[in-house]
Amino acid sequence: MSPEPALSPALQLLLWHSALWTVQEATPLGPASSLPQSFLLKCLEQVRKIQGDGAALQEKLTGCLSQLHSGLFLYQGLLQALEGISPELGPTLDTLQLDVADFATTIWQQMEELGMAPALQPTQGAMPAFASAFQRRAGGILVASHLQSFLELAYRVLRHLAQP
């Protein structure tokens, strides 16, 4: 059995926040008439600031994961357009397609678990049609090069999110 993938600290924070919020909603608050008004106002101000910071963090995470998923979804289509590139590259292309699809699915599932996924998954737009073997090979070089750059950027972003 493979170990569960580790969540970044930012994602863990969002999950903990969700769990604590549920508990907090179930906890009745007693009368606060004995607390000084200035203290209550300061607490309200701090709560608003923290809520704003949390919303900003969630917005950034949503944007990051959404862009990552969209990019992977685009490359899924581009890789499908390369089918038939050559018999010797077929198995490698198939493996790459599966890996990209699995990664996109993982990102989408995480977005759903965090309540950050859009209502509908995106649909694939028109992809290039490579009419000749030369076009498929030239397209393959371009797609592979751009996919590599995209994955390097994705790696840096995810590594940054994983830092404490």
UniProtKB/TrEMBL annotation:
Gene Ontology BP annotations: immune response; positive regulation of myeloid cell differentiation
SUPFAM superfamilies: 4-helical cytokines
Protein name, per record: Granulocyte colony-stimulating factor
Signal peptide region: 1-26
SMART domains: IL6 (SM00126)
Keyword terms of this UniProt record: Signal
Segments crossing the lipid bilayer: none
Keyword Signal: yes
Molecular function via GO: cytokine activity; granulocyte colony-stimulating factor receptor binding
Entry annotated with the keyword Transferase: no
InterPro entries xref list: 4_helix_cytokine-like_core (IPR009079), GCSF/MGF (IPR040117), IL-6/GCSF/MGF (IPR030474)
